[in-house]
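Lab notebook page, bench 4
Experiment: in silico fold of construct C2
Operator: M.H.
Input chain length: 659 residues
Purpose: comparison with the prior construct
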Amino acid sequence: MSEKQKSPIPPQNVDVGTAQDVEEMMKKYDRESNVRIWNGIPKLVLRYFGVAFSIYCILVTLFGKMMPEVKLNIFLGLILVFGYLHYPIKKSHVRPNYIPWYDIVIILLGAIPFFYFAANAQSIIKLATRVTQNPVMVAMAVCAILAYMELCRRCVGIPILCVVGALLIYTFANVRFGKVIYDLFYTTTGLMNTPINVCAKYIVVFIIFGAFLERTGISNFFINLANCIAGSSSGGPAKVAVLSSALCGMVSGSSVGNTVTTGSVTIPMMKKTGYRAEFAGAVEAAASTGGQIMPPIMGAAAFLMSEYMGIPYGQVALKAILPAVLYFAGIYIAVHLEAKKLGLRGIPREELPKFMELLPKLYLLTPLVVLVVLVSTNRHTMQFSAAIAILITIGVGIVNNVVNRVTHNPDTSDNLTLTKVLDALEAGAKSCITVAVACAMAGLVAGCITSTGLASKLITAVVTVSGGRVMIALVLTMLCCIVLGMGVPTTANYCIMASTCAPILITIGVPQVAAHFFVFYFGIVADITPPVALAAYAGSAIAKAPPMKTAVNATKLAIAAFVVPYIFAMNPAMLFINTTALQVVSVVLTSLVGIFGVAAALNGYLLRPMNPLVRILFAAGGLLMLDPSTMTDLIGIVVFAAALAWQIISSRRANASAA
C-alpha cells in the first residue's frame, strides 16, 4: 500500500476521545469491558489457553466424532474456566495478576461437573432420570448451573439473568425438583440445548474467522474503498462511516467493536467537516450496529436463525439482504441531507486514495468471496466452509506480506505475522465467552419453557391482551426485545425471543421467517436505543459528545430498523417470501424511495427547509411505499410526488426572491 492509500489521519486539532476514554465509557456501561488485568507469565499462560481453545474448537468442529454430551460438556467446562479467569466479581475487584480464592472455588465446583459428565457420558445417559437419585450428581448439576448464572451476571448482564431466575423459580414451583435438574443439566433440553450446540458447532469458527480477517488489513481496505467512493461528496466523511461500517460489519458482527474500529478514523473526520459531535458519534454507532444485520456473518445470530427455522444458512443471508440495504440506505440518505442542510463539503480528492491504487488489493476480499460461495452452494457444511475460509485468510495474509515486500511498501501494519495469528486465535476465544454464556442461559430459558409448557400459556396471554390483533402483538414483542437487549448481547436476546415471542407471532399469523427476523432486528437496535445504548455510548466517547444525545440521534438515523420489521411482518414479500422477480424489483425500488421520504421527513430538509405539513406528507408517502402491497405503493407515490413538487416549487420561488 502506498502512502496515498493510507486511511486519512484524524486531524490533530479536533477534540476527540482517546482509547482510554472509550475504555472508561465501556467499563461504565458494558460488562464485557470489565476484565481482569494479567501481566507477565500469567498473561502468557492465559493467552496460550485462548489459542489452544480456538484450535481445539476448530479441530473438533471439523473432525470431532464425539457424542454431543461429550463435546458440549467439554466446551461448556472450558468456557466456564476461561470466563472466570477473565471476569471479576465486580469492576472494583480488579488488581494485576490477582484472582480471589472464592473464584477458584467457583471454577472448581462449576467446571468439574461438566468434565465429569463428559468422561462418564455413556453411563450417565443410561441411568436416565435415576441419576437424580444420587445426591452428589444433583449437587454437581446445581453447582454447574449456578456457576454459569454467576458468570452470566459478570459478563453478560442482569436483564437476561432476571429472565432466567424468574423462569427457574416458576419451574421449580410447578415441576418436581429432580426432573428439573435432570432436564436442565443431564439432557439436551437445558444447558446443552440448541443455542449452545449451534455456538460450539458454527458460531465459534465464524468468530475466529472474523478475528483473522480483521488482522489481514481488510478493515483498512474497506475504509479506503469507502473513501474512494464517497469521501469527496457533500459531507463525505459521514458517508464513508456508513459505507465502511457496512463493509466492516460483514466481518466483525459486533456493533461496539465496529464503532471503535472504524469510528476512530471516521468520527474525527466528520467533526472536522462540520458535523455536530453527537451527530458524528451517532452516524458511526447507527452504521456499525447495522453490521449485525449485514450478511454474511450477521452477528452470529444468523446461524441460530437457520437452526431454529430449519432452513439453510444461505437462505437466511439472502433474505437479509434487502432489509440491510434499506437500513444503510436510510442512514446514508440522512447524512447526505444533513450535509446539504449544513452546507458541508467533502474531503479534497487529492487527499483520498484512488480506485486504481486500491484495485491490486482486491485479493483481500478472497476469503469473504470463498465463504459466500461455499455457504450459498451448500456443497460443504457451514463449519467446514468457515475453516476453509480461515486457511484462505492466512494464505491471503502471506500473499499480502509478499506484495508489500516486493512493492517496498513502508506501511507494514497490515502484514500477517505469527503474532497476529496468535492474536486472532486468542481474540476469537475471548469473543466466544459472552456468546457461549448467553447461549447457555438461552438454553436454560428454553428448558424451563419446555418443562412447564409455559409457551402455550404465554401465547394465550399475549393473544388475549392483543385481542388477536397482529399490530398490537408486534408492538408488545418490540418492547420486550428492546428492554431485554439493554446491554445484553444480540445472540442472547435473539435466543430468548426466538423461544418466547417468535412462536407467539407465528401463532397469530406472522410467517415463521418474518417472525424470527422481527425479533432479531429489534434485539439489534437495542444497541442504539436509550437508555442503555452501548454502540452509541462508544461513539459518544470517541466524539466527546453527550451519550444520551448521541443515542437519540442514532435512533433517528436508524429509523429504517424500526419501520422495516413491521413491513415484512405484515407483508413478507420484502423477505422474498411468496413473490416473483417482478415483485422483488418493485419492492426494492418503492422501498428505497420510501426510505428516502421517511429520512427527509425526519431531517426536515430536502431542497430547502420543510414546513410541518410537507414533512408529514413525505413521512406518510414514504411509509406507504415501504409496505410492499400495490395499493399502498400507488398512494404513496402520489403523496410523495405531491410533497416533492411542493419542495421544488417553493425552492424555485425562494431562489427567485433571493435573486
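Observations: Confidence is low (pLDDT under 50) at residues 1-12. The radius of gyration is 25 Å.
Next step: discuss at group meeting.
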